[in-house]
Design a protein that fits this description.
The chain has helices at 17-20, 24-29, 41-59, 66-91, 101-114, 119-135, 140-146, 149-173. By secondary structure, the chain is mostly helical. The longest helix has 26 residues, at 66-91. The chain is globular, with a radius of gyration of 16 Å.
Amino acid sequence: MTTLEQGQTAIVTHPTWRFMLRHPAHILAQGFGSGLSPIMPGTSGTLFGWLSFHVFSTRWPEIFTTTNWAIIILLGFIVGVWACHITGRNMGVADHGSMVWDEIIAMWLVLLFITPASWQTQLWAFIIFRFFDMAKPPPIGYFDRRFKGGFGVMWDDIVAAFFCLLTFALWRAL
């Protein structure tokens, strides 16, 4: 990344570990490095979300209770708006593919509502969430186009998580 004059923004096409480590917002927005994957960073971030949810919930179940997860997800959303705004501004791209904190928070939300669940059910949750996040059917695509900045980055994934959960609710009802 080059040195910028005041008011200039860099366009970062391929972020590096060096870029990520320059600011705490970058570390969070880029999913502690999971978003730096050269192949399907959103999927890598979602996998990181799934793995971290499992590890935290299994290793420290007395800390990572349902209530605490709900608080973590809410705070993670709020802080994520800030982190994604800063990172997008510093990259010169409002919603760069390497910013995966939105996928992590959304996957945690899905897992919060479906667990306890078998690994196969969790795998289906992963697949269904990724479908909604990547395909962006209405109204997800509308929110993706309508809201910009950190809130926009975070919000469309929350809507994708809602549709994933709605799919599960319909699947269980039938």
